[in-house]
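User: Show me an example of a complex going from sequences to structure tokens.

Assistant: Sure. Here are the input components:
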Amino acid sequence: MRATTLAIALATLATTARAETRAQYGGAVQAAIASAPTTFDPLRGGPGDAEVAALVFDTPFVAGADGKPRPSLALALDNADGATRARLALRPEVRFSDGTLLTARDVAASLSRALRDPAGWMLAPIKSARAVGEETVELELWRPAPELALLLATPAAAVTPGGAAPGKRPIGSGPFVVDGSDAAGVRLSPNAACFAGRAYLTSLALRSFATRSDEAGSYEVGSIQVARHAMAALDATGARRAAIAVDGPQALTGFVAVGRIADADVVRRVLALAINRDRLRRLTVREPASVVKAPYDPGRAKSEVERRWPGTRPKLSLLVDSSRFDDRDVAERILADLARAGIDVAIDAVDAAGYQARVEAGRYELLLGSAAPPAPEAALGTLALVAAVDPAAARAALQRAATPAVSLEDTRVVPLFVRAARLYVAPELRDLAIDGAGRADWADAHWLSR
Amino acid sequence: MGRRIGWLVALAFLTAAEPSPRGTLDAFADAVVERARPHLSPARDLDVAVAVAGSWPRLGDDLTALVIARLRALGLRSVARGDGDAAWARAAGYERLLRLDLDVGGGRLRASGSVLALTSSPWADAVETRAHLYVEMPLDAELRAYLPAVTTAPGRWQARGVPVGDVDVLALDVGDSDGDGRNEVVGVTATDAIVWAWDGARLVERRRVPLGGRPAATMPRAPVATVVVEKGAVTARSSLFADGVSWLARGRALPARGYVFPGVTTACELAAGGVDWFAAAGCAPSGGLPERFWSVAGLRGGARAARAAIDPAGTLWVSLGAAATAPAMPLTVRGVGAQVALVALDRGEFVATSEPVQAGEADAVVVRALTAGLPVAYRADRLPGNVRALAAGDVDGDGKAEIVAAVRDRAARRTELWMVN
């Protein structure tokens, strides 16, 4: 057996190439967030929470723009071919934002917490993690895992002090620290102790809005400099303030899922046949997006409903996060499509925290959501869809193989479209990028001039 | 009695009819103060710093003095000369910073700037722009006398590029790195030092030394590097690592402390907090350096000890050295890029800077004569990318120095070394 060492040069850290005119430090940004904040726990929450967690916490690896893992907290990963034991060497002298040293014990404890938690399914090939000295973590694996570095770049591998779930004032080693938060937003400032360098902005406020027009209006009057859901409103009124569209990779899958209800299989089949995905994309999701290839046969959907529920119209509720405006639009279209098929759907729009709690508890009849691949790998994208309704199934599949054969037909999930996250950015704000999970990376964002 | 009163009245009329002559620069200073005044209240509670930047030291000095005198007359608690750095002014306890940039164009002297409110309160922004100022006036004989004629010999400038492959060079220097009596170009990326030698038509890679060692505890988000080739020794450092490397001729590379700069006998550390600038306080010796700077270079082989630095606001500071004719105030040019080099050519001494043309477009290399006013002697536009590093030295062995620029086309992942002389 040839021992291969995935010794990843520090060079790969230096991926931020700039023009010779360097970025200026300073300036504040107020921006719309993908969904209202509910938690700082990297294992919990919606897309807005994931964005904040990525700014506050570090992972051993990060996925580069090319989709390849590059070291972040890690210096190297010794992961021999065919071996079921790997060693993770960590950067020395990394500190949390409170000044305490980030050690192998913190990394091992954080990985262990994720291994115990259903939401940590992305680390499924890892059986256990333990610290060996201050700067080395030994990982025992269920199977040889050549994709281990990529898995250690997923949110499940985020490192917290002592592996504890973060509280209201989270401590991390990432480029930002949380100054304060409420139900509508989070205020952040740069972490001067961040090993990867101080973020350029002096302050960053991420907030959600009650309505799309509130968000668009806030952008137009300059209260926010980055909008997420403004396009429809701006199209309607005509943009009065310049904006540049910044798109992430087309990787977010919008789906509707069936809860643990009677006749879930029939409902799933009807959903798959009755929803006109192409019209959904055209009217609500728009570009950049593509529809998931699936037969559209409303007649067959209707006959399935009539056969199972003769003479009655079944009534179902569709759980939607009210802070995700795009989802609310999609829900309206689904409601219309299913009404034609003979199912009456009521939209159950709840706030982000209520939505997350009900999703985790499985308390919904129909669920509208989106799943992002935790790392840029096709198999992980499919598993993320499975995990949206059944994390244990996703964990079991990934524990078996790096690219498990998973058929979504066997799950309660109906994928609808694949889209990219899009931001509308003030033209003077530069180097704001979106990753494959739709999270904005604010660490390199900076104003053109102060 | 009546006669005396008559004389007094006549004298008063005469005085009123012939006011003391006021210069154009006085009027210019009046206009500046008039625009700033509403934003300097309550006057008696404010300590104000005045910073005037421009390429004409005497003009800047005189205007600063006139503005300070007028502000003192307004009853401000204190008014003093400062530099344009808001962080410095705030640290020095000033509540306001009046910052002006002087510029000449279209036959007019223009001053543009701002009144910045500085506070140490945790509840307010550290720096807040209270007003933008703009004053312009036609150049008359008095103002023109401040602007020396360009004395640079026109000469013939040429620029040519040589490809060196896909290497993101962050620092450059030219010198004899192997003791063979001929110069090489040494470029430093985030991870390697690369030695190129001129073979008559192109630059050939001769040696590559990895910059290994302990990783830096903190580093800027975008890596920075420095390199110096001096007396057969090369010293290079990248921000990814805790130490640099140094080697003599073909000897083994050894760890080296600090960041070093061509033509400057100082070693520095990056300022704390993961930022990309150096602090004079972190340099030994620190004399003559701006409080904060991105890059610094000294003149080699010139008649004087000129030195140039670029601060994080993008201002070029040039000290012309200890010659008797050198002005006390450093010359400044705002809006330059991050790279600087000084070069002594047979037709004079020059400072070269990288300069942004427009966001998203290729940069230019601008060469200015090392004389008062820093007149532009040459401008190399249409470069195939961004200027990542600058150096000076005799690359091709013809006995004459060149300015060398590492120009990176990020999209094409290609770097060319451009030689300008």
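The lines above are the inputs; the final block is the predicted structure for all two components together. Residues 57-73 of chain B form the longest helix (17 residues).
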